[in-house]
Amino acid sequence: MRGVARSLSRIGSHARSGLFGIIWALAWLPAVAVAQQAATTPTKASQTSPAVASTSSSTLEPVFTLPPPPFTIPGLPPIAGDWIVSVGAGAEYKPDFEGAKRYMLSPIPVFSIRRAGSPERFRSPIDSASFTLFDYGGFHAGPVAKFVAARNANNFAELAGLGNVNAALELGGFVEYFPIDWFRMRVEVRQGFFGHGGVTANFSSDAIVPLAHGLTFSAGPRFTLESTGATAPYFSVNPLQAALSGLPAFNARGGAHSAGAGAQLRYRLNPQWEVHSYVEYQRLLGDAAASPLVQLRGSPNQVTVGLGASYSFDVRVK
Q1: 171: how many CB neighbours lie within 10 A of its CB?
Q2: What does the pLDDT read at residue 318?
Q3: Contact 212, 202 (CB under 8 A)
Q4: What is d(CA 302, CA 280) in angstroms, rounded to the nearest whole number?
Q5: How many CB atoms lie within 10 A of CB 29?
Q6: CB pairs under 8 A, 24+ apart, for 96-99?
Q7: Which of 45, 132, 171, 222 is the most buried (most CB within 10 A)?
Q8: Residues in Cβ contact with 97 at an 8 Å cutoff, skipping those fewer than 6 apart
Q9: Looking at residue 44, what is its pLDDT?
Q10: pLDDT in tens, 117-159
Q11: CA dist., res. 149 & res. 316, Å (int)
């Protein structure tokens, strides 16, 4: 464990000083402490699938009992039965906006749902909200949704003269595959509405390693493609905006948008409580990186550090 602590210390030494360094340390220090404690006690990691944070299901009586749904949809699994709902909260230290070089601390919600008795499937911090409709062997697929917050030019000096970008809702689907139980590949394709009308495709893979009973480490690469409709609202500078902002005019087009990597530590204290920490890095590519907003007022290097906790309880649908 001393070797792990020294490695994390070396990584942290390259991070941004000040508040970013503090958040970085907070994201990793609790997990290192948990690992040190777990290393001194017998573990059952060999009895737990690496792709699953916890396979245990709650034996408590449901906290809520809901009436049966007014209708069913043919071809979809029935909703009636017991479900495990997880809710919680966390915080992220991330760029003020995509392409920014300054950072802010933001609250984030935590929510997931699965059928009682089913294993808790691996989830990455970059996964959008999704629901599995197709489950066969190592393949899973279903709908996906993501909310993209509005970008208000009045909130950040770097955006002066560039105008606002409305909030966007991205809807689409995902496919993920576990060729082996400790490795996941996932693709999300989403169509934007309102704030932007483009298409975004996220590709990711993660190796999932149990370090001790209840403690899981995961890490892997990320890559994103975007259409022009998804890139231009955030990185283009039209002639009027150029005159108002002092930036040169620029017509951003789609293509390769970013590449990077991420890592996560999750620790399940018991069937109800779980805590997690993570770090994600992406390097903007193509026209997103070439935009004057990024070149002159921002940075193509984007880092997000997060902490969170969640509580799970049972819900029964008649």
Answers
A1: 13
A2: 81
A3: no
A4: 8
A5: 14
A6: 96/155, 96/156, 96/158, 97/151, 97/156, 97/159, 97/234, 98/234, 98/284, 98/288, 98/302, 99/234, 99/235, 99/284, 99/288, 99/291, 99/293, 99/294, 99/298, 99/299, 99/300, 99/302
A7: 222
A8: 151, 156, 159, 234
A9: 37
A10: 777 889 999 999 998 889 888 999 999 999 999 999 999 999 9
A11: 33
Does the pLDDT of residue 48 top 50, yes or no? no
Tokens at 219, concatenated: 């890490």
List of residues 6+ apart from 286 with CB closer than 8 A? 231, 253, 254, 255, 256, 257
Length of the chain equals 318
Q: Which domains does the chain have, with CATH numbers?
A: 2-68+77-317 (2.40.230)
